[in-house]
Amino acid sequence: MSSAQHVRAVLEAARLPQPDALPDLVDHGRSGDLVARAGEAVVKLASTPDNIELLRREIAVLQWLGPDAPTAPILWAGELDGALALVMENLPGRPVSHVGPQEAADALGATAQALAAVHGRDPAGCPFDMSLDVKFALAERHVAAGLVDEEDFDEERAGWTARQALEAAHATRPATERLVLTHGDASLPNFIWTPGEPVRLVDLGRFGLADPYQDLALFLRSAKYNYPDIDAPAILRERYPLAQIDEAACDFYRLMDELF
After folding, report:
1. 97 neighbors 187 (Cβ within 8 angstroms)
2. Is 94-257 in the same CATH topology as 3-89?
3. Which CATH number fits domain 3-89: 3.30.413.10, 3.30.200.20, 3.50.30.80, 3.40.50.620?
């Protein structure tokens, strides 16, 4: 079955309209085996155990956050032929990673504000624990199972093994962490922006209680990659706002991200 057929099967199961045009496959900010825009909907389909677990978690996160959160509303979620599917509204706007150079600074500023808003939400009752004890246990599982993509390590860790990265993370673990609600994977493709509107969040499978630098470190790395000529740290200090940036915390959380 082709990707388009899979998308149409999900929409049929959800009893949602079929678009006239072929689905537009998404090749950035992905979670799941298949992510596609189909008319007014975004379809995610996961069939491997790890992707099913991640998508199931994302569905639970969206349900817990509720309709007032800056996320895409769920249209339908359910199982289909042994796979797990999620259908959400197709948000207007563009990923912050894909805005024009003249708009990039505004989009980055809006994203910094969105992160501040998420981090400032009341964390009481949040059932999604992504604190370092939990993340190190997950990282150990990923390394043991051979799930870490060593070819995708950042340039400064080229040639490292996953075990080396995990040992380095243990050696540089911060003594403390301040737990707030975090996106968990705050790369720019995971934020949708329309000029003049608040940024919306997508791909929330790693959402949970963690230190703010879990998000800030990945935001800065992604901003440097996508817009190297823009002073993203200055934007973060002004719009988050942040008096100064903890570079050691940024280094640590970017290192931990290699293992996920």
Report:
1. yes
2. no
3. 3.30.200.20
The predicted pLDDT at position 245 comes to 98
Q: Round to whole Å and give the CA distance between 220 and 227.
A: 10
Supply the CATH classification number for the domain 94-257.
3.90.1200.10
The answer to whether the predicted template modeling score (pTM) of the entire model surpasses 0.85 is yes
pLDDT in the model for residue 183 = 98
The structure tokens 């009341």 sit at 122
Check 20, 68, 154, 185 and give the catalytic one.
Answer: 185
- Give DSSP secondary structure letters for 128-164: -B-SHHHHHHHHHHHHHTT---GGGS-GGGTT--HHH
Running along the chain, 260 residues long, what does each successive block of 10 average in pLDDT?
87 90 70 83 92 94 94 96 94 95 97 98 97 98 96 96 98 97 97 95 96 98 97 98 97 97
Is 185 designated active site?
A: yes
Tokens found for residue 43: 């379809």
Q: How far is it, in rounded angstroms, from Cα 169 to Cα 252?
A: 7
Q: Token digits for 237? A: 């200090």
Question: Could you tell me which residues are beta bridge partners of residue 214?
Answer: none
In 3D space, the residue among 186, 208, 191, 185 whose CA is nearest the CA of residue 71 turns out to be 191
For the chain, domain boundaries: 3-89, 94-257
